Amino acid sequence: MRIVLGVGGGIAAYKAASLLRLFTEAGHNVTVVPTESSTRFVGVATWEALSGNPVSTSVFDEVDKVNHVRLGHEADLIVVAPATADLLARAATGQANDLLTNTLLMARGPVVFAPAMHTEMWAHPATVANVATLRSRGAVVIDPAVGRLTGRDSGPGRLPEPETIFTAALAAVEEAAGSAGELSGLLSGITVTVTAGGTREPLDPVRFLGNRSSGKQGTALAEAALAAGARVRLIAAHMEVPAPGGIELVRVETALELREAVHKAAADSDVVVMAAAVADFRPDKVVETKIKKSDDTADPVITLVRNPDILQEIVQARGTGATPALIVGFAAETGDATTDVLEYGRRKLARKGCDLLVLNQVGKSLVFGQDQTEVRILSPAEPAGSAGESAAGSKTEVSARIIARIAAELAARRP
User: Fold this and answer.
1) pLDDT of residue 72
2) What strands, in cross-sheet order, belong to the sheet with 140-141?
3) Contact partners, residue 111, CB within 8 Å, separation at least 6
4) What is the per-residue pLDDT for 149?
5) Who is most buried in 216, 234, 244, 387, counting CB within 10 A?
6) CB under 8 Å to 55, separation ≥6 — which residues?
7) Which CATH superfamily, name and number, covers 2-182?
8) Which superfamily, per CATH, for 185-413?
9) 3-state DSSP assignment of residue 5
10) What residues does CTP bind to (predicted)?
11) Total Cβ atoms within 10 A of residue 265
């Protein structure tokens, strides 16, 4: 296995030498990529001697090999130990000001961070947010150990022992291999279009009507389809997460822009997955200047008009035997005093006419922006009252289940 070991500029850098030894003795090929500041704690010569590979901190070394791209692309695993507060912040914000952060941006395999810093740094809201961001993108961030820190301080923030990091890193590889293996080749030769994020309907130059969609589910679906061997197109409205690499990306903002992009994409798609949160309504007119408070204290009146039902339109436009072969809708529903979420989902499936409907319950702290989700996959072929197929877990895990179901539906439709 090809491993990149990133070393941050903290005093715990010396422990990374033991971690490197564990990897090499297990037969793995390790390239160490230290930050410039980390070489003040452990020198380049040490890393080269222990790894048997050349070591650099700069994107300008071995330019002919395009190291800043090659290392991340070729790595089966990237481990960063120690991951300082500064390094976590740079990784979370997508900075690329040295070889290590460039390599992280190019990563295609699992990424594992082993933090080490003072307790106050670990508990600071900025670090907490950065860790949450990295985890939401699929990175593994190991919780630091509790113990003696630099100086007389003690508390959470100590670098986990090399054996702990080694075990967590290999587990991340096994988990990634399991997910990829389950999907591998299922959609080979298939073109999949996925919509993601939330549309924004402008009121004036500075305001808009929007929703709480983060784009996490749609992004995870695009990644799962890519892992299954599909050619993937992602039509992205507003998203709080970056789009995955290796796909065709189409950016939109409003429901009407999304509608145009979806109709165009459907013409050469085998599968369309409508995971975006599309606004049902938009202002009947957009004011060209900012709406201001009037001196007479009168409240502005905003008239809304319906947006087109894009899902229903592409179902109706498909016709008999035309592309796309499979259309998957998403329904974010809330129950009420008379009807539960499942019943609303069944009604929507019948009304839209799509081939599958992924149903989830939304609300405060439910689904939108969260890393965990629970859905039911409904099909018109199921008997009345059926609860459909249930899937729960991380959005990555649930997306793998949805893509596997899509592959099964396609297979069942083939002669």
Assistant:
1) 87
2) 29-34, 2-7, 77-83, 111-115, 140-141
3) 77, 78, 79, 80, 104, 138, 139, 140
4) 81
5) 234
6) 31, 32, 33, 34, 44, 47, 48
7) Flavin prenyltransferase-like (3.40.50.1950)
8) CoaB-like (3.40.50.10300)
9) strand
10) 280, 290, 308-311, 330, 348, 352
11) 22
Q: How far apart are CA 251 and CA 261, in angstroms?
A: 9
| Cβ contact 378:391 at 8 Å | no
C-alpha 413/C-alpha 323 separation (Å) is 13
Enumerate the domain spans of the chain: 2-182, 185-413
d(CA 406, CA 327) in angstroms, rounded, equals: 9
Q: Is 100 helix (H, G, I), strand (E, B) or coil?
A: helix
- Residue ranges of the binding site: 280, 290, 308-311, 330, 348, 352
- AA letter at 298: A
Distance CA 196, CA 216 (A): 8
> What was the pLDDT predicted at 142?
94
Count CB atoms within 10 A of the CB of residue 398.
Answer: 23
Q: Contact at 8 Å (CB) between 18 and 162?
A: yes
What is the rounded CA–CA span in Å between residue 2 and residue 173?
11
Angle value at C-alpha 178, between 172 and 180, nearest 5 degrees: 100
Question: Does 2-182 match 185-413 in CATH topology?
Answer: yes
pLDDT (mean) for 66-84: 87
Binding site per annotation, positions for CTP:
280, 290, 308-311, 330, 348, 352
C-alpha neighbours within 13 Å on the C-beta side of residue 181: 6
Q: Write out pLDDT tens, residues 121-156.
A: 999 999 999 999 998 888 999 999 888 787 777 788
d(CA 291, CA 163): 60
Known catalytic residue at 211: yes
| Amino acid code (one letter) for 121 | M
Helices 310-318, 341-352: axis angle to 10 degrees equals 40
Catalytic residue among 67, 130, 211, 360: 211
Which tens digit of pLDDT belongs to each residue from 6-27? 999 999 999 999 999 999 998 8
Mean pLDDT of 382-408: 85
Structural tokens at position 386: 């059926």
